[in-house]
Each structure stands twice: as C-alpha cells, then as structure tokens.
Amino acid sequence: MSLGAFLEITPQRILVIKLSSLGDIVHALPAVAALRQRFPHARLTWLVKEAWAPILEDNPDIDEVLAVNLSLRNWPKIIRTLRSGQFDLVVDFQGLFRSGLLGAITGGTTRVGFARAREGATWFYTDYVPLPEDKPCAWRLLEIHAVDRNLAITEFLGAKSSVPVFHLPHLTADRLAVDAMLQAAAVKDHEQLIALAPWTRSAIKSWPPERFVDLATELTQWPNVRVVLVGGPSEISSAKEFNLLASRGLINLVGRLPLRQLPLLLKRMQLFIGNDSAPLHLAVGVGTSVIAIFGPTHPQATGPYPLEHHTVLRTDLPCSPCGSRRCRNPNYLECLQSISVEDLLREVEIKLRGLSGRKDDISFSKHHSRMGS
C-alpha cells in the first residue's frame, strides 16, 4: 500500500501494540498522541502487559487499555479477545515475533510495523516502514531516538509532525497522595528536590550502586537540597544501603508508590539523576531536568528526549556504545566505572545553578563527553 493510499484510510478501530517495557512504552506515547490527532474519531485500543497498564490510565488518547498476562494458559482468552476486536488498523511499535503474531491474530486488514522489525515480525505485516540509516548497524545502535522511530510510523500513516506529547497519569487523588508523602517528610518550599534512581533492569547499564550511595552522601550535605530515592518493590532490599542517610534528610520512597503516582512525584523534582532506565524516561516525560548516566547503550537512541534539553554523562571509548548485554572489555564496564562521583557532583551544581538562573562557567573532566544542556 502506498503512502498516498494511507492518507485516504479512515480506520474505525485501531489496535496499538506496545507490550513492554516501561521505558519503551513511554517512548511510544508521542506516537499514539499523533495517531489520535490523525484519526480523531477512531476507537483506539492499546495492548500492553498487565504490569505496565497503570501508566496508561487517564490517557486522553486511548479509549481502551487491553492489559494482558502473556503466560501460555492465557493465550486462548487473548486470541478470542483480539479476534472479537474487529480492528481494521494494527500498529506494532514493539517489532518482535510475538507482537507481530498478536497483530496477525486480530485479522486486521492493515498491519503496520518497522521494516527493521526483529525476529521475523515483518512476516505478519501488510505494510512496513523503513527508517533512515547512515550505515548498517544493530537495532540498539541506530542513531534515531526511539521516540522518533515510533513517530516515523505515524508519519507513514499521514500524521503531521508536531512537538511530541507525553500523556502520563495525573489524577487528582494521586497528586494529593504524593503531596502528602512529601509533607510527611517535612519538605519545605525553598528546598530543591533531587530524585535518585540507582537501579535498572540490567546490571550492565548500571553505574556502581556504591557510587550512588556516595553521591547521595554528598548531596545530603548541601544546603536546601533534599534527596528523594525512587525505585520499585524489587529494590526495597537494595535501598537499605541508604538507610544511614535518613538522618540527613534523605527521603526513601522506594516501593512506596504505585506506578501511576511515580510521574507525579517526578514532576515535583527539580532534578533527576539515574541510569538508562524507565524512571529516567518518566522524568523526561513530565518535564523534569535530567542527568543521565550512560554506558553500553546509545544516548541518541534511548537517551533523554530531546538530548539538547538534558545532560548525559558517558565515557568516550572505542567500544562504547556497544549495545551489548555482555561487557567484553577486559576492564569490565570501563564505560561506567570511569565516571566518578565528582563528575556527577559537578554536573548537579551546574544544573541547580541553571535552574536558579545563574550560568556560572565550570570546566568538565576531559575524558568524559557531556551531551545536552
């Protein structure tokens, strides 16, 4: 089907497939907002894993969230649900075999995905969208941000390019709950709040945890600064490493917020510091300034969006970014190990001065590259 033909289609029922993970779902939000603008009268359903469904609540672009558990015993029910949906347009932002198969199960007449989709997902598409590439490379190393990749599909479908919009939950009850947590921690109006998110799903993307402790130790000694530790239930045990800093005003909210409230908490922060992780992308989505620590992953592909509005710390090495799930450098994780606490403190000072309107010039460590503002 040609692009001109797509401009003529008027689907009545659209299925968006982006099952996981949380950060990737955040990256798909602007594309879904663009789909809504392109097809304002269509019924739009988002197929997502149950664990991440709360981040789609209260989203004005979505008519229905189809939250699924993809364990084998649930597939018969999922198949029945998808076939009964009568979708005439399926958009696969996941680009994997399973998501392509789920799209095909719907029987939708038009099924669109990436030409570079992996695991043979293109077998299930009726149409696919190429991405511009300067040179052949692995999917993880494409120098096209994930947000822009997803928007390329919506442009193929006739959506006009505009400023990307991240619609995240903002229910009044959740906002009041977040306010109550900060009030209980005795946060004062003049204090600057810095969120710290030390954990990722993959250890290879993580700055050493003990350095996050050292960073928090330093920041809790700064006047009018409060450090807020964020993470999910699985990080509660690891967060105990920060317990001694409670007496210095550190606020430990690890495992204490439902996912739906995390964007509202991050919106209250003046600054966010973390690895390439879902909380980082949520912070970006709500407009909070970010300092991101990157190692094997490519900032131009999965960094804070857009890069020029944020700061990325990474080490220039021949092997980085590698996009690999295993470090082959004899100096294990040199790309992350060589970033010091002092490097972070210098960037935090610059950020806080910028937020308060002072543009003091401070030099940077020569062996690191700094991206963004």
Short description:
This protein has 373 residues and is of the alpha/beta class.
Q: Can you describe this structure?
A:
The protein is of the alpha/beta class and 373 residues long. The protein contains twelve helices and 13 strands. It has helices spanning 3-8, 22-38, 75-84, 97-105, 146-156, 172-184, 209-219, 262-267, 278-285, 299-302, 334-337, 341-355, and strands at residues 13-17, 43-49, 64-68, 89-92, 110-114, 127-129, 192-197, 225-229, 251-252, 271-275, 289-293, 311-315, 368-372. Helix 2 (22-38) links the parallel strand 1 and strand 2 (43-49). Helix 2 packs parallel to helix 5 (146-156), helix 2 (22-38) runs parallel beside helix 9 and helix 7 (209-219) crosses helix 12 (341-355). The radius of gyration is 21 Å and the shape is globular.
